[in-house]
Every structure is written in structure tokens, then in C-alpha cells.
Amino acid sequence: MSNCLRVAMIIQSYYPRVGGAERQIASLAPLLQRDGVELQVLTRRYPGLSRFEMIGGVPVHRLPVPGPKPAAALVFTLAALPVLRRFSPHLVHAHELLSPASTALAARRMFGTPAVAKVLRSGSLGDLAKLRKRPMGARRIQALVTGLDAFITISREIEAELAAAGAPAEKLVFIPNGVDSRRFAPLAEPERQALRRSLGIDGGPAVLFTGRMSAEKRLDQLVRLWPQVRQAHPQATLLLVGEGEQRPELEQAGGKGVRLIPPVDDVAPYLQAADLFVLPSATEGLSNALLEAMAAGLAVVATSVGGASDVIEQGVSGRLVPPDRPDLLLEAINGLLAGPELRRRFGQAGRERMISEYSLPSVAGRLKELYERIYFGSDILA
Q1: Are residues 29 and 39 in the same domain?
Q2: CA atoms within a 13 Å half-sphere pointing along the CA-CB vector of 110
Q3: 154 with 21, same domain?
Q4: Average pLDDT in the 96-118 region?
Q5: Which residues fall within 8 angstroms of residue 18, CB to CB, at 6 or more apart?
Q6: CB contact at 8 A, 107 and 92
């Protein structure tokens, strides 16, 4: 039997639409391919995009999804099945429990193709919560729990939600997101200061957010807190890097010391130039932006939702605060801005953890191991 595995990845959107899940696929694809995994991506086709494209050496099939949401999910599945039949993958890997997982389950039933689903988010805006609100949501969850071969969980919170929904423990596999620690390596101080000047960051401390500007990130709350941060640290600047539906509101609300920066292809320079990273989300899966910040050696302040509680060691690599306590968020930001030596220690501890536990090669290896265990059986490729 050949050791080459064919894996079809199904995701709601893909490049040039970029989010955390898309970046994970793009980052892991070269490592998986180098290790003998042949990949193809199936995603939705948005206006202006071609039906087929090679991206980073991976074939990407974009499928039409006209009509309202319930019909669109069905149309996507029906369009995906012929593509899957032609590719004949050994395994289907869905990213999200909505239409990608439903399509994977359909392939499992029609072709007998083993299928796994990665659950992207937990909480009130998470995958399971969204699915429960859909028509026949409870039945769909039960079908996925019984029909899929495994669930990839990126946080212990997601793992607990799946267990409560009836997923057997043997189907739950914890594999976190990965991060390229070399790409985000901290700079020597002279280089860092030169970079800050080139980015227009003055001598005061820079507090950074990178990512999607959507409601669940609660950036509006952070902007409202900023005048109080400036009272304690008059030279502090808040840098918000990204795009999203909340950006126009943030542009109107932003005051002195708040800079909104358009999305950039590479966030590494901003991470290397900043002094502190803040993630004030109401809900998360495992934030790639958080992992990148820690890989860059930044101290972090984050709400204790999703994978942040797994990644950040309270008082060792950062500060965790409850998502409904803006007063504690303010206190944590001000405390770390006042303590450069504490920031340095937190940043160093966080980077060391990213290197040892969240490296891309480690995550890619764990994924391939899961694929092999499900398709070949645990004793064939030992």
C-alpha cells in the first residue's frame, strides 16, 4: 500500500479571502505535501474568482453557492460530491461544523470516505451554537457525532462542548493551530527601533491588535477604554491592523492615540515593533493572531475564552481576564505598560512555549498521524 495519502480539505472560504483557518491550511500544506500528503481544497466560489486555481502548489476548487443559506449549503454539497469522486481522497478534512462538515458526512455515507472535522470556535458564537440555531440543528449535530470518524479540537473548551453534545472521547483529538516561530522571531533592539520609525510608531508604548475586525472581537470596547489607558500612559498608541465589518464604526469612534491600519500581507513587522498584544474577544477558537504575537515574543493580554486559556499561562506568559470585565482588561493593560521587565519575561516565556508546543512541523506531524490512524489503521504505518 502506498504511503501517499490523498486528503480533500473543505472550507467555507479560501485565498484570497483570508482568516485564521485559511492561513492554517496555507501554512501547513507545504509541510504535509513534503511528508507525502496530496492535498486538494474545496471551497465556495465568490464573485470575481475563478472556478479553479493552483495556490501554493495546492489545487483549489471553487464551487457555486447561489440562493439563500439553507439552499446554498445543499448546493455546495451537491457540487462538491462529483469533485470528491474524481479526486478519490483517502480522507476528507472539513474545517467547521456547518456546510463543510455536512459535505464531509455526505462523502462518508456515499463513498465510504473517512471524514474528520476541525471545530473552529466555541461559545455562544461557536460552531455548535450556530448549528443548533439552524433547521434540524439537533439532528444534524447527532448525525455528525455518530457519522464522522474524528473531531479535531483546538481548545479544551471545544473538546468539552463536543463531549457534552455526545461525541465519544475516542473521537476527540486535540491538535492546536500551529505558528511559524522563525517568521515572527523578535528583532535586536537597534533593528526594532528602526522598524518602529519606518512604521511611524513614536517613542511611546505600542499596544497591538491584528486580525478580523468583527463584533465578537470587541474592539469597540477596547477603543472606549483607550482614553483611560492614555490617562495613565499619555504616549501609548493603540494599533488596530486588519479589516472587517466593524472597521467603519471603529474609524468613527477612534480618538487620540488610536491608529487603524489597513490589512497587510505580512503582520510580522507590526508584531516585532509592538510592546504589548491585546485580544479582547467575546469568543474564539484558537486565535492565530495570539499565537503569532507570542511567537514574536510579545507579552499578551487576552480574554479567557477558547484556546487562550490553554495557551497563556496566567502570570507566566500573559494576563487572562474574563470577557465581561472591561475594568480588569484596563487594569491588565495598564499594569503591563507600567512594567517593561514583566513584559519582557512574559514575552520570552510565551515564545519558548510556541517553539516547543505549537510549531508548524509538530502540528503537521500530528495531523498526518491522525490521517494515517484513521485511514490505514494504527499498525500499518508504524
Answers
A1: yes
A2: 15
A3: yes
A4: 96
A5: none
A6: yes
Residue 351 and residue 258 share a domain:
yes
> What DSSP element (H or E) covers 54?
strand 52-55
Residues 216 and 340 in one domain: yes
Split at pLDDT 50, 70, 90, the class of 125 is confident
In this structure, what C-alpha cell is assigned to residue 344? 519582557
Q: What is the pLDDT of residues 204-222, one digit of tens each?
A: 999 999 998 999 999 999 9
Give the whole-angstrom CA distance, residue 382 versus residue 80: 33
Nearest to 131 by CA among 140, 120, 142: 140
Q: What is the mean pLDDT of the chain?
A: 93
Grid look-up 458564537 returns: 125
Q: Is the pLDDT assigned to residue 303 strictly greater than 90?
A: yes
199 and 332 housed in the same domain:
yes
**pLDDT (average), residues 129-156:** 94
Residues 162 and 14 in one domain: yes
* Domain CATH for 284: 3.40.50.2000
> Do 322 and 366 fall into the same domain?
no
Instruction: Give the residue-averaged pLDDT of 43-52.
Output: 94
> Which residue intervals of the chain are DSSP H helices?
20-34, 69-87, 99-111, 127-133, 137-147, 156-164, 189-198, 219-232, 247-253, 268-273, 288-295, 308-311, 326-337, 340-357, 360-375
Could you tell me if residue 247 is inside a domain?
yes
| Bridge pairing between strands 52-55 and 58-63 | antiparallel
Same domain, 341 and 233: yes
Please give the residue range of the domain that contains residue 223: 189-357
